[in-house]
Amino acid sequence: MKLEIDQPYVLEKEDGQVALCANISTDDDKFTLWYAVPTDYAKYLCSELSDAFLVALLPWAMLRSTASEQMEIVCKAAISQYLYHQITRYYIPVLSKNISYYSKINIIAQIATEVLPSAKAVGTGISGGVDSSYTIAQYQHCENHAFLLTHGVYFDMGIYGGINSQSEQKIHQKVRKIADKVGLSFLKVTSNTCHVLYKKAHAPIVPSIFIGAILSLQKLFSVYYHSSTVTATDFKFSTSDAAYFDLFNVHCFSTANTKFYSSGIEATRLEKVSVISKAPFTYDTLTVCLSEDQIVGNCGRCAKCTRTMAQLEVLGKLDLYAESFDVKSFRADPGYHWGYILLKSKSDTFCREIRQKCREVGYNLPLIAYWSCLKKYVARGFTSENKKRERFEEQ
Question: What is the pLDDT of residue 394?
Fold first, then answer.
């Protein structure tokens, strides 16, 4: 099996956009991948290198490669020397050994040793979630200006209802509001890589598609914070979520131009919530629940909403977030919300941390929470797992 990445090129698009594109061909298919930004950022697009497209394609290629017929990726443009070394020496060998659905691939390309000109910007993705908000809270003020945030990036990859869907537009409005509040330059990056390659943003491929997008702008960013969901303590090569080995990902994907950091690996989820609860910009922008059907965010009933409200409640900060969550409904239905926390307190790290904090501060749960937990446990077939939850399937 062979895959070719043609020389990247810059193409003017409609509505004041310009895109970095690459034509991709396989034994039986041809398609074009692209990253689009406002025309003001055209000078930062990296058409000299294949880096951005190679990183986005890695999980796709390793999924389709086999031990008997390894995928071969041929890059018409050069690859950064550090990226090539890290991917071929560490990323591919390690993941093919530790992730059951990945196999080794071969990469053929020239190696680029020069460092590109850079604007020395420092960026991070803005989603409105806990991890993203924590990174902003930590780096919006920084004594060392080399690490001080300058840009907030929003990725429109069609995850919620398609590129430029109503859901994506609602999220765009909210994250732009966050950037304005904290004084960051706002940059929207639109890309078809997720839809064309993976259809949807399964957790195992998220680092590759987001970091690939940033590598298209290596002339802009010298530092980029990739907000991590889990702590360094929980590091493992998980088959269900690549966030568990983000430390490995950001090391392998860094280049001489752009250094990636796994922001948040030093803090537990409850510690992050404690930090952001001291950051006023989060009070009316914190958004943990987003889907195609829930375009306004924070439904107040899903697992993410329940966990976050419980974390804020046990920290004594929930009332600060009355514009983000329906606080009255949360407190009016303790069986539903705290029953879930109890149910998941052994299998879910976030819920276990909440229960521990309850004990530390003397927050007593009502009896109905225990009764609700028991009913949920029985209804799920004597397990705390949700059997209806969609899993990542090997392709």
Answer: 45
